[in-house]
Amino acid sequence: MANVVEWFSNQPLLVLMIIMALGYFVGRIRIGSFSLGVAAVLFVGLIISAVMTSYGHPVQQLKILWMLGLTLFVYTIGLDTGWAFFRALRTNGLGLNLLTIVMVIVGAGITVGLVALFKLEPITSAGMFTGAMTNTPALAAVVGALPGLKETAGLQAQESMAVAQSLPTVGYALAYPLGVLASIAALAIFQKIFHVNHQEEAVKAGLADIPIYTRNVLVTKNVPLLISDLNDKVGHHIIVSRMLTPDAYEIDETLTDAHGYPEEVQVNAGKMRIASVRDTIQPGMIVCLTGTVEALDAAEEYLGEETAVDLAYYDTTSGLRRMFVSNPNVVGIRLGRLGLQRRYGILITRIRRGDMDVVATDDSRLELGDRVRVITSRENLGKAARILGDSYKSLSEIDLLTFAVGITLGLLVGNIPFPIPGGGVLELGSAGGPLIVGLVLGALGRTGPIVWRIPYSSNLTIRQFGITLFLAAIGANAGADFLNAITNPSSLMIILGGAIITFILTVLIALIVYKGFKLPYGQAMGVVAGIFTQPATLGYANDQTNNDLPNTGYSTVYPMAMISKIIVAQLLIILLLKTGVGMYPQLINL
Fold it and tell me: Is the pLDDT of residue 155 over 70?
């Protein structure tokens, strides 16, 4: 066995892939309705790393890989949710960010209380706080602050300082794994208590795949009106794609099918045309409408009655096709501004992004990878394909130049030092910087000819790979320290204390966001993950909801949470050392 472990210790990438594969498998195991999801990768990494360390062959350090995975994950999250983040700031985002600051301070307050109550070692407890809040940059801030506090801590000897600087890492490693599990467990418990229906929440938030239908309506009511005024009249969004004038059709009532509908319809093709917003709907016309069932019912009630005449079937002049949007020149621009119908006679009725269909409006913006339903003349289909791109092959490739430039800007921003009161500097790091830049670029969509966003499918693929890589690598890196600490009996209170902090904060945040702010529970799960800056918790939330509500909540509070924890962690270690709270300075034997 020892020889096998030794061989694997010299194959770090192989070990990493095994962790990712096995963790992904374990994450899909369900106990009732509960599963760890992608978070299982972290725990599998810790276990494998700890086993290899126990045989004297720890996994080689993979820090650069977990930094890469985390950077890819947060940057693609930012690109995808940037518009939602800035929209939220105009509504409930300000309140959620204030809640974030308060919750981080409450977490620090609970830490002080636990240190005083159970006489915990203060330096390790500061690391416990960063582990319970699952924030590596905050841990780095605590370690970096210790040299300036050596006189306060009574650590004059160089060897004492070296030991002291390792204590926050031990506290972090002890609190982190159970902290993740405590957060996920609390969310799972409340999901059961509140009987959350994630599909229903997504529908109400406009993030679910609501079926879109087409209906042919015979106008029987004396309501002549411009097509552009129809939506205001019925109170729903409707697309009128085709119009058939009264003298253009003739129904033979003697020929019917098994359902009693007319079997033959004679159409004068010259009177059939693609509708324009400038056209007027007249009594006797047959109009082809596209929208949700609710919208179509309202339009039918206002205009007349459904007819058996299928304009799409009998239309011999128009072309109908689903096309991929792969041309960057039409991406991120309002359809009304593009003027495809006005300039080229090309009408887009539906936009499908991922698994969701929406009715196109003048305010809709196309994204790379969208599939749109196009109606135009048959001879114009080729031009429509050239304008939209309609190339699946090109969607399999992302613009690596703009993608790399965006991440580079994010890493540069993450390394900008911000001085803080009392000395020291604040850096957003490889998580905060790329996230903020991703949010800004995602909200912009494009800058002149440069398109920052990437195809939806590519975004999801990179995001999933990034989070899995991050969890596998950080689990493999932390296994050795975790094994050393877990064998020390005095570590139990640090583990328990971190779990208490995480569980209490998760309960408070979930209740306040779900019941106080009246936001969907899926979004509340994302806010919890964002305040803890915890990709594993976000991965669990995404697995449970299968929609973008958790990502919206996560991106809304993540930047503020990152900054708050880095600052509060440094203030916490200063407070603990200067007030002498706890059993001090009792150092854990490493």
Answer: no
CA distance 27 to 34: 10
- Rounded CA-CA distance 555/97 in Å is 11
Distance, in Å, from the CA atom of 124 to the CA atom of 68, rounded to the nearest integer, reads 28
What is d(CA 147, CA 164) in angstroms, rounded to the nearest whole number?
Answer: 9
Closest CA to 406 of 364, 438, 383, 445: 438
Give the tokens for residue 492. Answer: 């139990």
CA distance 87 to 439: 11
Is 365 in a helix, a strand, or coil? strand
Report the C-alpha gap between 451 and 455 in whole angstroms: 11
| Mean pLDDT, rounded, for 468-473 | 83
For the chain, domain boundaries: 59-204+413-579, 213-394
CA 506 centroid distance within chain:
19
**Encoded tokens for 22:** 């096995």
The tokens of 104 are what? Answer: 């981080």
pLDDT tens digits for 101-111?
Answer: 999 999 999 99
Q: What tens digit of pLDDT does each residue of 139-149 get?
A: 766 776 777 66
Backbone CA torsion sign across 175, 177, 180, 182: negative
Q: Return the closest-CA partner of residue 290 out of 346, 361, 220, 356.
A: 361
In this structure, which amino acid lies at residue 536? A
Q: How far apart are CA 554 and CA 531, in angstroms?
A: 8
For 291-337, give the secondary structure using H, E and C: ECHHHHHHHHHHHEEECCCCHHHHCCCEEEEEEEECCHHHCCCEHHH
Under DSSP, is residue 264 helix (H, G, I), strand (E, B) or coil? coil
Task: Give me the mean pLDDT over the 196-210 stretch.
Answer: 75
User: Residue type at 419?
Assistant: P
Chain mean position to CA 431? 15
Beta bridge partners of 319: 376
Q: Which residue in the block uniquely carries the two structure tokens 């359809």? A: 335
How does DSSP assign 552-581, residue by residue? Answer: HHHHHHHHHHHHHHHHHHHHHHHHHHHHT-
Count of alpha carbons within 13 angstroms of residue 357, beta-carbon side? 15
Angle at 510 between CA 542 and CA 576, to 5 degrees: 110
Whether CATH 3.30.70.1450 fits 213-394: yes
Name the amino acid, one letter, at 53. T
What strands lie across the sheet with 356-359, from one edge to the other? 318-324, 371-377, 347-353, 356-359
How far CA 550 is from CA of 99, 159, 357, 518, 535, in Å, comes to: 17, 45, 20, 15, 11
Task: Report how far residue 139's alpha carbon sits from residue 125's, in angstroms, rounded to the nearest whole number.
Answer: 11
Residue indicated by tokens 């179509």: 296
Instruction: Quote the tokens at residue 106.
Output: 């409450």
